[in-house]
Amino acid sequence: MRDLFTGANILTIIFGIISVLTSIAAVHYARRTYHLERKSVSKNSDRSVVVFWSREDMIDSLLEQYKRAGDGDDIWAQTVGLQNFPGQVHDRIMTAASRGVTFRYLVTLDHPAVPEFLALFKNIASASVAGLRDNRLRLQGLSRREVVIAFPTLTTYTAIKFTDAVFVGLVRDWFDHRWADAAKTAPLSMSRSLTQGENIAEP
Hints:
Blueprint: H1 2-38, E1 40-43, E2 48-52, H2 55-68, E3 74-78, H3 89-98, E4 102-108, H4 114-119, E5 127-132, E6 138-142, E7 146-152, E8 157-162, H5 165-182, E9 199-201
Parallel strand pairs: 3-4, 4-5
Antiparallel strand pairs: 1-2, 2-8, 3-6, 5-9, 6-7, 7-8
């Protein structure tokens, strides 16, 4: 009788362990499926839209712009917060600059992280940074080929990469207009602080 009871308990324990392991595996694969479904790409012959559901995926796309940029290309961007700027970007900027890429960054004036941001471009003559007080949209573009626009909230992060030439051109023209407003005065030293309308560029 005792052997039968012990055997039944052992089987119960074994089936319990199997059940737990199965549940863990199910949760794991459900999470993987969820993340794969969240990485959405929609394309046709003329347009391409890529939706990023995490900041990490979006950052990878931005860093890829530096990698693909070549002689005659320009990287143009508007920032809002400047927090958690990816560490790899300095190396990517230096490498892209050596290939003849130029850079324009429109930052938010009076943001405490501006000096740290300017330090990224201290030795890059082809980089310019200007400032405005009303930056509301986070974006980065590669020439007129693509633009990534981010829409973060307190709990979610969404970004969209557009490669449709017409749409990219519209965003680029909007950025150029804002850049012209911000860069009306003579270039200042990289060590100076930004004020309204001032342009910071390496002499």
